[in-house]
Protein ABHD18 (Brugia timori), 261 residues
Amino acid sequence: MEQREFGFANDLMKSNISSILLQNPFYGSRKPRDQFRSSLINVSDLFIMGGALVAECNFLLKWARQQGYWPVGLAGVSMGGHMACLACTNSPEPIALVPCLSWTTASTVFVQGTLSKSVSWDVLTMELLSKQFQDGIREIPGCDWLDRSYEMEKKLNDNSPFSAAKCVVSFPLQFMYVLMEEFTNLCNYPAPKDTRLIKNIIAENDGYVIRAGVPTMQQVWPGTTVEIIKGMGHVEAYLASHTLFRRCIREMLRKNQELYS
């Protein structure tokens, strides 16, 4: 864990709020030996990471409740914020949730946002177009990812939201879009038990998390509140908004206590 994360938790302690800092699978000491820093080797690693985080977060929430801690909640920044959302959908009881600098799907992050430039599209294209890979995908029961990707390519036109993005212009990008929508779109998961306990913080000029053309948080989870950091992009908002993040965490935990005490 980095010093700034401990500093974040230490400040919350002044408000009698304890923190469990969960190290992301595939990050830090948990990353594979041949992985360079946080650059995942396989696209599938992202989905394994998400599944692990959902399970681990809910185990820790259950443990905390058994130890007498209440109210409880989840928070995270960027990808951590989205993972916190996914974990919240699996919580059997109402919990506070503060996703920071994240949105309702990761599809646009990887095909339109700044991170799309770091994807090895040439490698993915070779794999995707191979008969062995496509045969393997088609063997998955009920899986229509390839058909949906081909259909998107076929229907691509000037009136399409995909063409408006000026980014989903090739089959590999469309397949990535379909995968990310399948596994990361919050519409595909159960709604949290009480969306009044959710406060989403976003950066107005976020170039990493693209919000155009996807459902808003209020559309996916009615009752959620959204706070916008004006005039900032993704990185600047992260560096400058820790005080805001902590304030919203305190606010949602207090609201949880007021509603369910």
Q: What stands out?
A: Residues 163-169 have pLDDT under 50 and may be disordered.
